């Protein structure tokens, strides 16, 4: 019971922090004045190896040789706290990612900064995992972009071909329609000739009857009437054949017109389907672009 009533002291809190967090302290010359075993383990050194080491030895050259590095320390020594995800270099020269907070340490009068303490958490494994996920997302976005571009290109080619078919089909339909109209006109002409032939046949028959009544004087006239009647019969037979041919042609033309119309409707439906596919490919490309942008944002944050 006595143990449960023990007071939480600052010393106990500090000890707890040291047992669970990576902690390091630098003097005003950027040298390591203190480091716990957790931090030393994260960067691959022993505690003794790190004491007296310069901060820049834990950084990559592109950072410590940059103006940002000097500004970084100027801000800390002027009393500004810094917190962010940072990249540091371990003893093997490999990258280590830390979620770190740099805290200036003031003197008793809070007038001068006499050191800088950093508390950090190793997030290297999480960073590598997230980077792998982001890389996978970016590759997926690239594949989607490539495939959608290919799909759009093929669909555009197919749509162009179908447009040409529709145009040709329209021309053929118009030609066949004209041909059918001409067939109807021929039928009208045939009907007119048939009427004329019928009337000629009746006139020849009447002429033959009158020639018979005329006796000897109508004999020559009867010969002419008989020839006219024979010619009328021949014309009638020819007209029947022409009518049958025109009727057959009209039937076949109508079949072709109907078939062409069906083809045109099918092609137009295909055009709609291709356009739908192109819209889908464009939507995929847009989504892939958004996915790539989101992956870039995540990559910048991890």
Automatic annotation (TrEMBL):
GO terms for cellular component: membrane. Gene3D superfamilies: Methyl-accepting chemotaxis protein, PAS domain. Signal peptide: none annotated. CDD domains: PAS. Keywords: Transducer. PROSITE patterns: CHEMOTAXIS_TRANSDUC_2 (PS50111), PAS (PS50112). Pfam families: MCPsignal (PF00015), PAS_4 (PF08448). Residues 122-302 form the Methyl-accepting transducer domain. One of its GO terms (biological process) is chemotaxis. Residues 23-52 form the PAS domain. One of its GO terms (molecular function) is transmembrane signaling receptor activity. The keyword rRNA processing does not apply. InterPro entries: Chemotax_Me-accpt_rcpt (IPR004090), MCPsignal_dom (IPR004089), PAS (IPR000014), PAS-like_dom_sf (IPR035965), PAS_4 (IPR013656). It comes from the Bacteria. Belongs to the methyl-accepting chemotaxis (MCP) protein family. This is Chemotaxis protein. It comes from Paenibacillus bovis. The lineage of its organism: Bacteria, Bacillati, Bacillota, Bacilli, Bacillales.
């Amino acid at each position: 019971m006595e143990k449960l009533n023990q007071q939480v002291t600052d010393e106990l809190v500090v000890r707890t922090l040291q047992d669970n967090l990576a902690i390091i302290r630098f003097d005003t010359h950027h040298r390591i004045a203190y480091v716990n075993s957790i931090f030393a383990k994260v960067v691959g050194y022993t505690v003794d190896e790190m004491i007296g080491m310069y901060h820049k030895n834990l950084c990559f050259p592109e950072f410590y040789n940059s103006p940002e590095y000097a500004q970084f320390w100027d801000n800390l020594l002027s009393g500004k706290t810094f917190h962010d995800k940072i990249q540091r270099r371990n003893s093997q020269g490999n990258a280590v990612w830390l979620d770190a907070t740099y805290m200036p340490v003031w003197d008793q009068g809070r007038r001068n900064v006499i050191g800088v303490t950093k508390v950090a958490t190793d997030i290297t494994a999480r960073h590598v995992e997230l980077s792998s996920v982001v890389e996978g997302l970016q590759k997926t976005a690239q594949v989607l972009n490539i495939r959608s571009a290919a799909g759009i290109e093929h669909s555009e080619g197919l749509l162009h071909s179908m447009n040409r078919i529709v145009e040709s089909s329209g021309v053929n339909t118009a030609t066949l329609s004209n041909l059918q109209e001409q067939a109807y006109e021929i039928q009208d002409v045939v009907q007119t000739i048939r009427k004329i032939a019928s009337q000629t046949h009746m006139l020849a028959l009447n002429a033959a009857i009158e020639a018979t009544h005329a006796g000897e004087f109508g004999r020559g006239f009867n010969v002419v009437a008989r020839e006219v009647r024979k010619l009328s019969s021949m014309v009638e037979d020819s007209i029947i054949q022409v009518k049958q041919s025109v009727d057959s042609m009209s039937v076949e033309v109508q079949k072709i017109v109907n078939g062409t119309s069906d083809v045109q409707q099918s092609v137009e439906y295909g055009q709609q389907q291709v356009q739908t596919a192109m819209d889908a490919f464009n939507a995929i490309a847009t989504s892939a672009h958004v996915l790539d942008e989101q992956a870039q944002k995540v990559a910048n944050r991890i």
